[in-house]
Amino acid sequence: MKTQQPCPDKYVKIINDLRAELGKDVSSIKFTNTLGSRVQKAFGSAHEVMMAPSAPTLKTNFNGTICRQAADDGNHYVVYPSPRQVNLL
């Protein structure tokens, strides 16, 4: 069952600290790549990271907690652990 919750404080801190470090003019690709690396380092596992100017609609088979964060920078972030097994077929 998918649950959507506000991101725990540790995720929020990583997002806010990175935004303060990189500024608002950095490309979304650089920001999400860097965010993914920081989250992976902090939690010890790969995470899916999305960023959009409005709350994204998700369609995923992920079974777990999906964190959504509306940030002060006007973007919406979605972060959740990558599935352990991925079936690309």
Tell me how many strands there are.
4
Strand content: 15-25%
* Distance from first to last alpha carbon: 22 Å
Provide the spatial order of strands within the biggest beta sheet.
Answer: 1-3-4-2
**Sheet with the most strands, sense and barrel status:** 4 strands, mixed
Mean pLDDT equals: 80
Give the uncertain stretches in residue-range form: none
Q: From the helix content, strand content and strand pairing, which structural class follows?
A: alpha+beta
Provide the domain count.
1
**Which word captures the global form?**
globular
Number of helices: 2
Helix/strand order, N-terminal first = EHHEEE
Protein name: Protein CBG22789
Organism: Caenorhabditis briggsae
Question: What labels would you give this structure?
Answer:
89 residues; single chain; alpha+beta
Description:
The chain has 89 residues and is an alpha+beta fold. It has one domain. The chain has two helices and four strands. The chain has a four-stranded mixed β-sheet with strand order 1-3-4-2, with helices on one face. Strand 3 (65-70) and strand 4 form a beta hairpin. The mean pLDDT is 80.
Give the SSE layout.
Layout lengths: L2 E4 L2 H14 L5 H16 L3 E6 L12 E6 L5 E6 L8
Brief description of this entry?
The chain is an alpha+beta fold and 89 residues long. It has helices spanning 9-22, 28-43; strands at residues 3-6, 47-52, 65-70, 76-81.
